[in-house]
Amino acid sequence: LTAFLIVHSPAILCRKIPIHYGRYLCKFKLCGTNYPLSIAFIVVNEFCERFSYYGMRAVLTLYFVNYLHWDRDLSTAIYHAFTSLCYFTPVLGALIADSWLGKFKTIIYLSIVYVIGHVVKSVGAIPTVGDTSMHIALSMVGLILIAFGTGGIKPCVAAFGGDQFEPEQVVETRKFFSIFYMAINAGSVLSMIVTPILRGDVKCFGDDCYALAFGVPAVLMVAALVVFISGSGMYKKVPPEGNILMDVCKCIGFAIKNRFRSSKHDVKRKHWLDWAEEKYSKRLIQEIKMVLRVLTLYLPLPMFWALFDQQGSRWTLQATRMNMAMVRVYLSAIRVSIVYGLLETMIMTITLWRVILIEIDIWPLRKMACGMIFAAIAFGLAAFVEINVVVRIQSWTFLEGENIVAARFEDVMANNVNIAWQIPQYVLITVGEVMFSVTGLEFSYSQAPANMKSVLQAGWLLTVAFGNVIVLIVAEGGGLEQWAEFVLFACLLVAVCIIFSIMAYFYTYVDPSQLDKLYQQDAAKGESEDELKMTEKMTKL
């Protein structure tokens, strides 16, 4: 409805303000506000895109197990390989947007790739299209295209929304990002309600309708693309100005190259990055030093994401083997994640945000360490539940006809562990995410200059990618029973938390604004010296 009103009734939603530059342009504003109308298109686009992504991912693990008939380990590995690729590709999207096409064209082109991926994935879920090999091939091609699409536009959409505001609209920009992330949560939660219902309650081709469950997200992605293009005439399009990430990489590379080329007779440098002073400004080098201090703290962080992202794989598969008798209306195992998704959103937005992030006055790095501990405890509970889910008994039998031989075997009994036992682990990992993720991003942005935020964003997303790689390796190469694997992840995260706490203890908090003041004073001093020299020359003349 919002998209329809935006596209078809601009006169209702906006007022026109003429801008005179020798021609008549119109700057659209949302009625009664100081917000540009263009952000409405961006927010609706983000809602539809997140619905598309999370809706598809909500049924992905069960699609692998039930439709492609893969085992649990392979299904988990492919699920996390896909998630990992989704968080590696944002770096590529940022480079394309900042160095070549600009944010607007990058979003358009990669959204088309995104749509094609969804269509291919949906076709691969139609039983009458080819054999199993064809289904697997189409599914893998579709997932790769989706990963490049969603990852490529991830760093562009939010930044493009921020570009719509003037520099002095600080309050409006902050409120926009609150609305933007609300749209992300709304799209993800609604998709986790709709797509499992389409998969389980609607029957097609005599079985669960995965084609429809994947097809609806494809339609939503088409809608996202159409809505975004519809607002093209209202957008403020900032041309590509070069990527700061490339500048950082070039500066680091130049410093390393100079360092190894140096001889014993060269002047000693206090820091290895100082070897780049021959080509790059001192300010840029100092900013990179600040960023590297933060990125060093990122090194232990992938382990947290290795645990957190298993909600969509291992924990979902655990739910399929639990008793749902307490639930009055029959729910499929995947639909239980809806309840947890709603619970997570409610906790994050209403209670935990204020209590954890505002009222608890402790250093940000300590909050992140506490978040790791909560996640580790959650996996300890998951291991406890898993031990009780798989109930094994020992039996004896007689074999080999006349020869009586005692032989032991294990039989898996139908479990009666209620699915409600999963609730505590979801609550704990949600608390952990709030303390870890939100605090981590806030800390990162507070410890680096404003022009380096894109570098930190890329680094943060890469920690998520590498976290999923860890799960992939353990799932394929571990060979452990599920409860033992949960215990292993919990212990690894505790060990990483100890390492991170030691690193945090020796970290010194900085104020990036002091860097601006320092270089402004140096620039003013340099201008004063230049003026003094010019005055002396004029006096001599």
From TrEMBL:
This is Solute carrier family 15 member 2. It comes from Gadus morhua (Atlantic cod). CDD domains: MFS_SLC15A2. Belongs to the major facilitator superfamily. Proton-dependent oligopeptide transporter (POT/PTR) (TC 2.A.17) family. GO terms for cellular component: membrane. One of its GO terms (molecular function) is symporter activity. It comes from the Eukaryota. Keywords: Membrane, Peptide transport, Protein transport, Symport, Transmembrane, Transmembrane helix, Transport. The gene is slc15a2. The lineage of its organism: Eukaryota, Metazoa, Chordata, Craniata, Vertebrata. It is a multi-pass membrane protein. It is found in: Membrane.
